[in-house]
Amino acid sequence: MSDAIGSYLWKGSDDKTIDEVRRYWTDNVNTTQFWTGDPRQIGSPEFYDTVGAFIRKNYEHRYRLIAREAAKYPGGKMLEIGCGAGWELIAWAQAGMQVTGLDLSSGALELAKGNFEHNHLQAELKLGNAEQLPFPDHTFDIVASFGVLHQTESTENAVAEVRRVLKPGGEAAITLYYKYSWKILLTQLGRVNFEFAHEDAPITRLYDKKQLRELFKEFSTVEIFLDYTRATHSPRKGFLAFCFNYIFVPLYNLLPGCIRNRFGHAAVVLAKK
Question: Structural domains in the chain?
């Protein structure tokens, strides 16, 4: 393992390379798994409307975070690393920020370009690696990355790059998979893929709160909290998916918030340079 901080979801991840990561996310552009229509219609107006509505409903906590953070830097410059098809990047733009999206996958950037055109918004979109950001020092007011930096060769290098391109006083808004998440535990117990049903990501790191503080120790202030604490239905098919959707989800969501909030799917790190 190249990083000293964190652990892996699956054994063997320490042998994977950035080229394997690029191939995976090019073949499996994130959020296309939520499209249940004709695969040939991915990138159509119906695709953007349908998947966009699904994401806003099931990840509404993330859009609240975006609105709150964007309000701190009105009209500021922000970068999203691993922007994918551009769903959250559009929300940053709608909040009035000057947005730049970077992704390792050219296929993802093509979808993001179509998404911005569909929504009549502007963005700078760049192909690039989180560990070698193609931007000068002190460029952005906010650098965001939602569920991405734990899936590169060195998350430690990627976090250092985030800090480098932030302006003094700028803020990173990063979500990373939480080691004790209910979803991680179910994935490991059931031995099912975490990302796409047919194939899992080559690299997925997990962190507890102590490890996250170590990972972001070069920042001046660090706030950590768990999010995505409610279970939502999976679009997958089969017996395990049925049990998850109709047994686990309703029972888990009946638990008091004080219990659910200890096992959130993602750890959110807000770190100021």
Answer: 7-272 (3.40.50.150)
